[in-house]
Every structure is written in structure tokens, then in C-alpha cells.
């Protein structure tokens, strides 16, 4: 196992690995980005090529490339190892294929099914399905790139093929490709007589499918069906086409969300590749968490029918509450109901339409103005009602005030009156929040839990030391570790008496001994924060930081004594507490003079 890890680290650079997920910007010796694990506007996520580690100084998460893949993919170490081994082109020889875990087997089942569906275009029915796709404007390269296929109108064709490939009936059912019969007499294929759209995870592994009906005798069959929830397919966490679009989304710093698989792949074919599809599934907080890794700018383009309009409103409401910048991409061609139709008619028109996207409030404001009667109170109330759910979700007060002012001017009504009506207006988007819970503006994107905030004074002290550890050799022996948090105290103890002639070995030894990257993160911070400071200035900052730590500790003690004095009835004990308080106040006075 350790040999595999070393081989991967030798072949891969952490900057290349992380830049596959985040937009990194050069910052001196390091790279910076907005942290994907908590909501922030100022980049505090740092990647060190020298140390081959990453760290967020906002939420305190950090580690090596394996730790990053574990966090961002939400997987265990063994899965992170597989992902990085694939990137490095390394075969994990220590794993016995006979004992692969269940998830790997399910991915293999889906991959085999994809190959089966692809080959069915050679059958008579498959050829007609391919001709249908070509008639919709899908070219051969797109069919190949998105691995489209066909499921024959047969109850057991896929099941038989997978059994011949060595997969059990139970594995086929668990992959969502077959359904067990109620009488217990076996299973039958879930997808029959359908054009198949494989759905891949971020690493390009097929995890599920969407099947579109084609030449079926079943008049009641659904037009589209999807793989059900499985151990590898979660419709609330996978977006169709994101594995192909993620780098284009980063380059464009925008993601266009469409409704159907055809819309996404036709957009790619037309050259607009920063597009993903929700595959008919409502947008979820987890979808937004994924997208937030690549951009905070979203464009919505759902079908113009009533269901599409409602889906757009739902998704926009959720995204606004997560601090995304939203635009609406509107197709004005009456002959085209979705992007796929528009691309088929005129591919250049789709690119122009995306470029003309309107800011979300402007879009809904213009819609609300249609048919407006300036002399009707009901008409004014209708405009406010249409815009209120979106105004409530704006996290920028400046933007909110801008739209309230515009509304006041348009409705010829006092701004205060409009703001009061917005506050009490019915919110028709609230019901679509995750798990029926209200989502507050500005809530963290990547986690329902608040990030663990690092203590600035502890971080500053350690980064000062790591700028030049030898400079503080004597001071380290005398630091009162009670002033520090546990992790910083461990690091200071580890540094006291250490050999500073080889800083690289020292950092490595501490990491292996304490299972912590604390010193390496402090070293990264120090190179940027103190790069122009002389030794004398570092010493002064060090003393100042220690004094602030002591002052904070003393003030907490003083506050505690105050509570004890108010609760104490014994006169002598009160006098003793008062004496302790005076000592603390005297010491605080001394510190403030330094």
C-alpha cells in the first residue's frame, strides 16, 4: 500500500491534481483558490507545490493530495487511492481482482452494460434509433463521445449478456439495471426499447443511465426513466455531463444548467461546453456543492413549459440562498422549446442565446412588467408577489436595495412600503428547500455544519516561528503552552530542542509522529505572511503575539472571577477573588505598556 502511495506521489503534482477541481491562481511560491469546503469570497485555500500539501486558513482543513480527493469526492482512502492511481497510470497490483469491493463491481457492471448498449446500434431496431438521433441533429462524434446506446425490446437481453460476463443477477439488480420479479422467479431488464444515455460520476465512471422510450408498444410507458438510487448512483449528487464540462466551467467561470440529457450533449456539440443537465431531477444542495467547486456563476435554461418554468424558479431560489450569481438563458425562438431544438435548427443561435443571458432579477422583473396596470393596486401587488421570493434570498444588501429602488420607481410607491410587503409576501420557493428545511441566505455551500475556525493568534505565532525556527530556539523552550490550543502546543513542544539544519526532514518527522500537517501549514503561511520581515521585526511580532495570547487568557480569567464574585455570599472568599482580580488587572496593565 505504502509503495503505491509513494509511486503516485512521484508521478503526480498536487497542483495538477487540485487544479482538476478548482481554479487555482499563482500567489508567490504557492497557489490560492476559494475553498470548496466552506463558503468564502476571499481565497484562503492555499496549495504548496514545494511541500505538496494544501490548507485552508479559513476552515482549517488540509492535507496531501489523497486527503483532498477524500474530502472533495466524499470517499474513503482506498477510493481516493484508485482515483489518483488512474490519473497516474499506475496499476494497483496489491489488490486481488477476486476480492474487489462491491462498489467496484457495480461500476464494472455499468461499464459492461454501456458497451452492450453501444453495440446495439448495429441491430435493426438500433439502427432506427440511431437514425432518430441523427434526425435530431446528433452527429456521430457526439454519439461516440457521450457513449449513447440502445436497449433492445427484450426482457432478458442485457441480463443474459451480463451473466455471460460473470456478473450475478443480484449485482445486476443492485446496479439498477434489472428488476426482481414479484414471484421470485428471477429478474428482468429495467430498460427495454429505449435510447440509452450513460450518466458518469466526476471521474468519468458510468454510475447510472437515462433511457428514452423508442418504438414501444406500451402506450403508458414513461418517456424517460432513470436508474434508481444505488450505492454508486445518487441522482441528488450527480449532474449529467459534469465530468466532461468541469474544466470548461472553470475556464468560462460559469455553468449553464439545462433540463435534459439531449440539451447538454447538443450544447457540447455546438461548442458551448460549460453545460450540465439535471436529467429531469430537481436541483439539490448537493448539486450546488459540486458546482461551487468550479464557479459561483450559474445560467438557468429550462424548458419554457409550465413544469420547466417552475423547475427554474425552484433551482434559482435554492442557488440564490447559496450565494450564487444567477442569470436566466431564455430561448425566444417559438419553434424551439429547448436548447437541443435550437442547436438542431441553428447551433450559432444557441451560443448567442447563452451570451445574452439576463440577471435573474432583471428577467423576472421584465416578465412581471408584462401586462402591468399602473392604476391597479392588485397589479402592483402581483409584481411584488412575483419578485419577493427572489429578493428575500439576495445575500447582497446593495443588490437588494438596488431592486427595491427600481421597484419603487416602477410602481410609483414608497420604498418602505414595498420592503414591508416583500417581508410578509408568501414564499412559494420555501417548500423546495432540502429536506423541507428553510435555507438561510449565505448558508455554507459545502456542508450543513459551520466550518471549524482556526484561532488567528495561534496560527500567527506558529507561522512566525516557522519563518525562521532557529531564530526562536531559546524562546521555544520557555513558552507557556497553556496559552496555546492543543495542536499548536504539540507543535511548539515538537520544535523545542529540534534540529533545524534540515527543515524538510523536521516537517516530515513531525507529520509522521503527530499525524498532523500543522507545521507544514504554518510554514506555507509564513512564506507569504512574513516574506519581507527582518529577524528583529519577527522577534517583535513574536513578543506581541505572545502578549496578546496572555492578555486573552487573563481576560477570560477576569470574566470568570466576575461571575464567581456575583454568585459568592462569603465575604472572605469575595475579598480573595477581588485580590486575584487586582493581580490580573495589574498584569494586564504591564502587558499593555510593552
Automatic annotation (TrEMBL):
PROSITE patterns: TOPRIM. Transmembrane segments: none annotated. GO terms for cellular component: cytoplasm; DNA-directed RNA polymerase complex; primosome complex. GO terms for biological process: DNA replication, synthesis of primer. Contains an N-terminal zinc-binding domain, a central core domain that contains the primase activity, and a C-terminal DnaB-binding domain. NCBIfam families: dnaG. Belongs to the DnaG primase family. This is DNA primase. The lineage of its organism: Bacteria, Candidatus Yanofskyibacteriota. The gene is dnaG.
